[in-house]
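#dry-run=false #mode=assembly
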Amino acid sequence: MTIPHPPATRVTAALARRGRWRLPEVAFWALALAALFLLPGRYLILNEIAILALFALSLDLLLGYSGIVSLGHAAFFGLGAYTAGLLARHGVAEPVVGLFAAAGAAALVGFATSFLVLRGSDLTRIMVTIGVALVLGEIANRMAWLTGGADGLQGIVMGPVLGTFEFDLWGQTAYGYSLAVLFVLFLLARRIVHSPFGLSLCAIRDNPLRAAAVGIPVGGRLVAVYTLAAAYAGVAGALLAQTTQFVSLDVLEFHRSADVLLVLIIGGTGYLYGGIIGAVLFRLVQDELANLTPQYWYFWVGLILVVLVLVGRERVVATLAAPFAGLLRRFGRPVREA
Amino acid sequence: MLTLLFDGIAYGMVLFILSAGLSVTLGLMNFINLAHGAFAMAGGYVTVVAMNRYGVPFLAALPLAFLITAAVGLLLERTLYVRFYGRSHLDQVLFSIGLVFMAIAAVDYAMGSSQQLITLPAWLQGRVDVFGVAVGLYRSFIIAVCGVVVVVLQLILTRTRFGSRLRAAVDDQRVARGLGINVNLIFAATFAAGSGLAGLGGALGTEILGLDPTFPLKFMIYFLIVVTVGGTATITGPFLAALLLGIADVAGKYYVPEFGAFVIYTLMIVVLVLRPHGLFARAR
Amino acid sequence: MAPALRTIGLHKNFGGLVATADVSLTLEPGARHALIGPNGAGKTTFVNLLTGVLTPSAGRILLEGADITGESAHRRVRRGLARTFQINQLFRDLTPLETIGLAVSERQGTGRDWWRRVGTKGAVIGEIVAIAERFGLGDALEERTATLPYGKQRLLEIAIAFACRPRVLLLDEPAAGVPEAERHEILAAVAALPRDVAVLLIEHDMDLVFSFADRISVLVNGALFRDGTVEEIARDPAVRAVYLGEEADA
Ligand SMILES: Nc1ncnc2c1ncn2[C@@H]1O[C@H](COP(=O)(O)OP(=O)(O)OP(=O)(O)O)[C@@H](O)[C@H]1O
Ligand SMILES: [Mg+2]
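#status=ok
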């Protein structure tokens, strides 16, 4: 039984509960940090996971919180990667500067193209997002004098992070750097989704008609979140370019947009940790399967997708996660009946 | 110049045959089937295997491509697709992308990742000169075959009982069910026919579009352009869209190769934003 | 003083179907106005035109004298025009608490705060509590909206429209589909709306219409068929024929 509170305090408490830190969350981040010292030899894959997680987190802002289906999110990832790569190649070696530039460039293009996805059905949104990614891919391909075209952008030299932490051969700095960026951007996203602005995004996702009818400027909010998500994806791409010191046309390709969607779907949408958990699972499974049949990895990706939706995304994730259901709920995973 | 136009028309005709099935899936079942290209690829590989491994003549390989892909389409429709008609577009997209990935990897595994070639019969090779315009024989053949298919499709849609039921079902599924039309049967039949057409398109297109395991992804956007730009209300819409796309693509690659496919993608986005129901759709 | 709401020659057609035909209607400030008409008469379409869900084919809409015809849906809400939906349009995954909070903070202009946590503005909290109590939602505040009983969902529909603090409130069959036993709760909430808000009520139950309204407009085939006081409409034989008679048949 709850102790009877004055209603206002009860309401405040109920609203505050949404954004409270829970123990498993703290434990998760502590674990991720511990890996920086306890798992030498695994830094490369940890770094990739952190980057993929950030990319999926950015898609979660769109799909999970705002209900926008995108199949071209790689556009912003790739744009960020090329921006950071080109900056480094032309003498700006400070990684953090590169991150800001990548975020800015991706946000700019995200803002400009957000107006294309404002209206229209899922189908037009899917087509337009694919189209934007294709256009960027085509531009990168044609501007080979700048981007290196099909050979990729080579000769990226990074300086130490913040002038202090040199990138090492084992990737310890790389992982630490990516993890730090992921954590900071995660905190920001967490803050945003628990704000009135974030709540209004959920409202738009649930019912745009009603959202407009309570005075929420639906178009403006979607433009804002699309721009934000683009910036996030841009940063993820920049991290990839900086930590691997290479960018190829691959960063803009369709399969990357599809991968990140799968990652997010595996982890579950709408609670921020879905992208991170999905990234861990995806890369670990990929590592296993790719050892068996390196070039046929996509068969298994496809199979996972088909089975996942055939049985019902919510149901599969719920069943697999059943032993951890209580835990996941404490991560803030929304409980929805199928 | 005229040769270019001719090539563009042939290309557009193949695109139409390839996408016709998709336009029905989308219009009839409101299903976003990104795996449509996989059926086209299947048709292409059926032709390649039949001709190169079993020595089937080209003309016999074409109906074979149609029939086998139609059968595969029917099977998949009854077992898998049927479960997704009422589901969210996100689920449909995830499901069909999954199919594409599986198809690509499976074909890669079975046939290797290299480009597949077929040898056309001698009477389809080369060009002839018609009033000073060099006309490719194979392209004339494509235009003839596709022309026949278009006419037959149009006749089926407008003159047969099946066609009128199909149109009723596209217009309003609930009303059609109310009238006692077996919509499920129509779904299955059109899906199979659409897959078969895609297979036929893949077979015809092997020579001019190329064929390798990435085919479904490489051309996915083209199919989608045809149906979204053309709209799903009629077959003339997608037909015109396919012709336009074919001519624009061929001409674009010839005159402004430095832009590549850029122009086409941009045009598609513009059309989608300005006319979300398609360029040729009736105003609602 | 300008009328609370006025339409001039409002017209809407869907292809060949005329859903709203040249409707000119005036709502005085604080009015209790009922809009009646047979099924498919175009009542919901009219509300959709007023609130910006649909764009009229012709005609103008004035809210307190200002032309809002071209304005976006959310601007109209900010100017004081709110509505409920005939078929529930709620945020299924949110709680009533969050839903009402959204409407309140949007109206207070703090809805786009992105750095502040939800629930840290005393002014919003106070208003949520007051609204919840007014509409009997106090116990259900923290449930997921999709799991609420239907009657409560209907009340929430009205509560969020009320939370927009409208000058004009459009109620599209607020008690539609509610079981007999729970109707009175909704009717009481409607009857208790503040007197200075002009209310346009769409309703099929004639007893309710007569007890609530002081003016009635009758819509038939999209056109304004009659417009008058309760007594005039009740006495009008033509109205009886097209509408009341029809109800008697049913
Ligand atoms: N978006 C639309 N497209 C086409 N026709 C529509 C649309 N919305 C409504 N209609 C048609 O307009 C007419 C008026 O419908 P409306 O819903 O406004 O009636 P109503 O008076 O609210 O009826 P009810 O009492 O059943 O709620 C109907 O014939 C309906 O089929
Ligand atoms: Mg109605």
